[in-house]
Amino acid sequence: MDEKSIYILKKLYEDEFVSGESLANELKISRMAVNKRIKSLQQMGFSVASYKKKGYQLVDRDIIRLWQVKDFISSSNLFSDFLYFPQIDSTNSYIKENQQKLVSGTVVYAERQSAGRGRLGRSWVDLEKGIKMSIFLKLGLLDIEKVVPLTLFTGLVVNRVLRRYNVHSFIKWSNDIILNNKKVCGILTELSGELEGSASIIIGMGLNVNCEKIPDEIAEIATSLKKETGSHFDRTDLLIEILKEFESEFENFKNHGFLHFRDEYKSFCINLGKEIVINGTQRAFCKDIGQNGELIVEMDGRIQKIQSGEVTIRW
Ligand code: BTN
């Protein structure tokens, strides 16, 4: 989206009605050019209505305020670009396919995903009014051992931000964010391309925010912030808060690894002290979280470390 379209969107967001004439004057473009941009905003899914005397109106204001996100990105030392897609197959896939031309620190955001991907080859059901984004990082000096816990770190960051909003969320190992026993956020971290001493990583997160009706197929296991708390959340603020928190703790993560966050992680981890089932078959008792975020369990009378897999809790 070009700067002028973002400016128009900003005006529409700030005022109840905006005349085409004032936009044309402010942007020093023709009415036709304004019209064209309004049309393309509509095609992108922004609900802009047009009234003969009053002008244009943004009907649904639950949007991502691109100007604000871009302001944050330009002030950031970690993030470098923000790509907004009204519709895409998957933000993680987009980065995978385009990583050659993307700079480290690019954030790819999509309003809707047609082929969102989840962990363990599953698909990620697309809910409206959520936050679906992927962070692309080229990590020169980060060793691979720290890459795995990066996904746990991201979960901790999301949980921390939600807690600040007084959301009573928890973490289910490895990085599901749980609210009232249902999943409200999932994180898919993918390593893409490994060279000696360097790695590119894609951290995709899907946070269900203001969706009111959860589709039947996932209603028993998934939820949204709005559904559980009854409150509407400002998705732009939430998105920026998550990126800010990620950035401000990322140095700590790089320098000290997951260990620096382990106590906090453990205090919100709902697996600890519970009987769990690993990959649908193996029963175990969850004893601890290791230095690198691995799950430490007692299984078949032995203490074992679990690095990955699907864990369900036996309540
Ligand atoms: C999980 O299975 O819990 C992980 C879900 C991750 C979903 C997000 S939505 C944005 C990004 N793009 C994808 O295709 N997946 C991740």
Question: Helices, strands, pairings?
Answer:
Blueprint: H1 3-14, H2 20-27, H3 31-43, E1 48-51, E2 55-58, H4 66-75, E3 81-88, H5 91-98, E4 106-113, E5 131-139, H6 144-164, E6 170-172, E7 176-179, E8 182-195, E9 198-207, H7 225-229, H8 235-256, H9 262-268, E10 275-278, E11 282-289, E12 295-299, E13 302-306, E14 311-314
Parallel strand pairs: 3-4
Antiparallel strand pairs: 1-2, 4-5, 5-9, 6-7, 7-8, 8-9, 10-11, 10-14, 11-12, 12-13
Bound molecules: biotin.
The site of biotin has 20 residues, from helix 5, strand 5, strand 8 and strand 9.
Unreliable spans are: none
Helix content: 25-40%
- As a percent range, the share of strand residues is 25-35%
SSE-based structural type: alpha+beta
Q: Secondary-structure element sequence?
A: HHHEEHEHEEHEEEEHHHEEEEE
CATH top level label of the largest domain: Alpha Beta
Q: Describe the strand arrangement of the main beta sheet, using strand numbers.
A: 3-4-5-9-8-7-6
Assembly level: single chain
Annotated CATH homologous superfamily of the largest domain: Bira Bifunctional Protein, Domain 2
